[in-house]
Amino acid sequence: MLQKNIKLYDLHLHSRFSSDSEADPAAEIEAAIKAGLSGMCFTEHNDFDYDNPESPNLFKLDFDNYTKNLFSIRDDFSLRSDAPEIYIGLEQGLTLPAGDRIESYDPEGKLDFIIGSSHVVDGLDPYYPQFWADKTIAEGVKRYFEYIYECVKTLNNFDVYGHLDYITRYIPDKSLKDNHDHLIPMDLIREILSVLIHKGKGIEINTAGWRKSYHANPSAPIIKLYKEIGGEIITTGSDAHSAADIGHGIVRAINVLKECGFKYVTFFSKRKPVFVSI
Ligand SMILES: [Zn+2]
Ligand SMILES: [Zn+2]
């Protein structure tokens, strides 16, 4: 059971500064107050390699506009005694072709937290059928994790890996929705997790999976493996794109983490991890 005084952090959420959200950041902060969160972090999308000829700026963050606005909104809420700690971060799409731009992002160190995520693999998002067109399902899933392995070995400018098994949400066979463990290359995932631990990076538990699929991302066996091989840094995030989803599943996520042996969750301030007892 969750203790009453447990602190809840939602460190993965999007507002109107992300291409796929129209949410008002102030309304999301109000929702966080209602949900009783201790802390929240805005993590807007930036995907350099999200190629859409009709909309070339899709998922390209207007960094200056975003940070200017969010710093100002944060100042407004600093007068409120019931407001959570508000952090300002990023969900950076990790790809190999954009490596130089990813590594030199935010040179002035304005951000508190960067989630590195894989939305695009070999130029394609597994959300769309083109990704799967020339592969079996097993090949597509394996290729996704091979690509993540290359990204974690090569790139450093991120703090945790986002929704590590994101691809399981989009396996194009509904009969495999709640039955795909046999497709997950756990040896390769062990290698990915080892590199992350060695580099001092963490992972997140992303509760959107409970809304979009049947498990949080990554699934409990992957979280358990991460803990077993020495992983300590883990953040909780709803991946909300609207005020209604702020804080969704965070209590449930903490219960999963406790079952996996974690005694702490992490939040980030100025890119430094802070551990909070659960
Ligand atoms: Zn994402
Ligand atoms: Zn996200």
Which short descriptors sum up this protein?
single chain, 278 residues, alpha/beta, TIM Barrel, seven-stranded parallel β-sheet, two-stranded antiparallel sheet, binds zinc ion
Q: Could you describe the 3D structure shown?
A:
The chain is of the alpha/beta class and 278 residues long. It has one domain (9-277): TIM Barrel (Alpha-Beta Barrel). The chain has nine helices and nine strands. The chain is globular, with a radius of gyration of 18 Å. It starts with 8 loop residues before the first strand and ends with a strand. One zinc ion binds at residues 12, 14, 91, 239.
Strand order of the largest sheet: 1-2-3-4-5-6-7
Kindly state the percentage of residues in helix: 25-40%
**Coarse structural class:** alpha/beta
Q: Give the helices and strands as they follow along the chain.
A: EHEHEHEHHEHEHHEHEE
Radius of gyration, rounded? Answer: 18 Å
Question: What top-tier CATH class fits best?
Answer: Alpha Beta
Distance between the termini: 11 Å
Mean pLDDT: 95
CATH superfamily: Metal-dependent hydrolases
Number of domain units: 1
Tell me the CATH architecture.
Answer: Alpha-Beta Barrel
How many alpha or pi helices? 9
* Biggest sheet descriptor: 7 strands, parallel
Strand composition percent: 15-25%
Low-confidence stretches: none
Name the bound molecules.
zinc ion
Query: What gross morphology would you assign?
Result: globular
Give the total of beta strands.
Answer: 9
Using the coordinates shown, work out and report the CATH topology. Answer: TIM Barrel
